[in-house]
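B., you asked whether I could sanity-check this one before it goes into the benchmark set. Here's the sequence:
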Amino acid sequence: MSKTLVAYFSCSGVTAAAAKKLAAAADADLFEIRPAQAYTEADVNWRNPLSRCNREKLKGTKPALAEPVPDLTGYDAVYVCYPVWYYTVPLIIHSFLSGGDFTGKRVVLFLTSGGSSFGKAVGHVQKTVPGAVVEEGCSLNGDADAAIRAYLGK
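And here's what the prediction gave me:
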């Protein structure tokens, strides 16, 4: 088993493609973070105040996962790839992080976005996994291959 897991959440496929490249380059295992109830295009329309993503944000609702978090025993690091929602990680990332024991692990964040940065994501995630070391990885926008090579030192 690899000592690194790449876990990703993707609605449009952009983050999925980047996460797969990261997993291949890092020789890591791959896990898709999926909600028990899939998001529709209308669900993630942040411009609609009644959309599911807005309701989840306002209520602080962590969506249920379709599958449980895999056994993390053999992993030293977990790379978490996500699209930026509201200048931080989507709440489903907190669902994933709450579902496993990340004590002593490195949790490295990788984002996709139309222009946002990590913002307060590291601090938000650190509160969810206080026994882990949470770090910024890099943005996987644009030339994800170059960003991954630079991050991994390849």
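One thing to flag: The beta strands are 4-8, 29-32, 77-83, 106-112, 133-139. Otherwise nothing jumped out at me.
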